[in-house]
Amino acid sequence: MNLVDVKKVVLTGDRPTGPLHLGHYVGSLKNRLELQESCLQYIMIADSQALTDHADDPQKIKEHVFEVLLDYLAIGIDPCKSIIFVQSLVKALPELTLYYLNLVTWNRLKHNPTVKQEILQKGFGESIPAGFMVYPISQAADITAFKAHLVPVGADQLPMIEQTNEIVRRFNALYRAPILIEVEAVVPKQGGRLPGLDGKNKMSKSLNNAIYFSDCPEVITHKVMSMYTDPQHLRVEDPGKVKGNPVFYYLDCFDPDKEKVASMKEHYSKGGLGDFQVKKHLNEILIEFLRPIYEKRLFLSKNREALVDILKQGTLQANIKAQQTLKEVRTAMGFNYW
Ligand code: TRP
Fold first, then answer.
1. pTM assigned to the model
2. Which amino acids bring their CB within 6 angstroms of ligand 1?
3. Is residue 46 situated within a structural domain?
4. Domain coverage including residue 54
5. Of all protein residues, whose CA lies closest to atom 9 belonging to ligand 1?
């Protein structure tokens, strides 16, 4: 048996609407680095999906395809181990989406909790793009086209996985062909939701509270030093709150010295440890982690041709797999005319 056949398949992706940040790292990128060692991993840059809420700016999406690719490569996604590709160049995906659209009710789509929350966040009001409403179905096409077993995502994407599995079951039952497989989410142990620099519950570009892989060390220091902490902790000798304090959350995620973090937390809670000291330490930890990423990113950004080549190769491989699945799907439906 071919080695590729025994490996689990992973599919995941990002909308290229902005550069990636530490929240993406904790939520999914870290898991992808592990998974690429043992699985056949497809990583999709979801430019078509980005259009569902950025139809007015395809040029920005195109530029960010390369920014996101640089982020992947700089953090250690290896194009020899993971297949990185561009969603809009895999034509089997919209065709699968078209077939799956008939397997989901409008009512079911309206009640998808992630979509509901995003509609509010994005302030669509009554003007929700139809493409946005059905993006969970196109996401099911992305996942099933590669017969993925695993999808590394943040917990907020769990309803998408559920929707995918409903489509898989419905397709297999309706066409009496067990060709699509159910998928499992790989969610980070701590839930994977990194709070923002401002202490808000999520790091995100739209909240302007993120540290990016493309930030230079000076910018990172500035951001860390102006982070939200415990607003009641006014004097160094005051006892401070660790819970809900993003500075400690970040240390939990990024400082490998767990004992040191535990003792800092204790000291802070008792009083006598100033915010400045904690931030200074966090800054050192983050710079140590992010500086090589920043430098690698800068270096790779100078060779656009090499970047294009990586995407071309990945997209070629992705097309082979997705076309194969599409053929099976059409055959299961009896649409193999001659
Ligand atoms: N929804 C993801 C994001 O917002 C991108 C995405 C598209 C995706 N298709 C997917 C993620 C399939 C996992 C699986 O970034």
1. 0.94
2. 11-15, 44, 46, 49, 139, 142-143, 151, 153
3. yes
4. 3-194+304-333
5. 139
